[in-house]
Task: structure prediction
Amino acid sequence: MTSPIRPSLVEAMRAGQDVIAALERVRRAVRAIASDDALSGPQMSALTLLGKNGAATTTALAAIEGVRSQSMSTTLAALEQKGLIERHADPNDGRRQIITLSAAGEAVFRDGRSARHAWLSTRIHSDLTVEQTQLLIEAAALLERLVRRP
Result:
């Protein structure tokens, strides 16, 4: 059995740059759909993390986002002021607070997510062929494989 032919380092670097650039453009386009203009990028990101992953501490959210805890505290304070999150005492450590989405925060997360999925699905349906759609599905699986590899 022969080993698969691998791309050159130059080809791999170009592919990586092209993929990152395309994903950034997709991310910006998708974020613009049904985003609440009153929410900043960091606020929307924190809201999305809580919506996808559930309850978390400020420190955990900061670590995921790659920001300082103080920056995340500022972001969460703004979300709390808008009534989108709630703080609860950690039952295991009274000094820590657990952050969750409020009912309003869940609605913003759910409605925004549905609108973004609908927008992208509509674009795929109207702009791509069956073959291109299959290629996109395969590319998504390859990207998942790359990021899940230890």
Notes: The chain has one domain: 9-148. The domain at 9-148 is CATH 1.10.10.10 (Arc Repressor Mutant, subunit A).
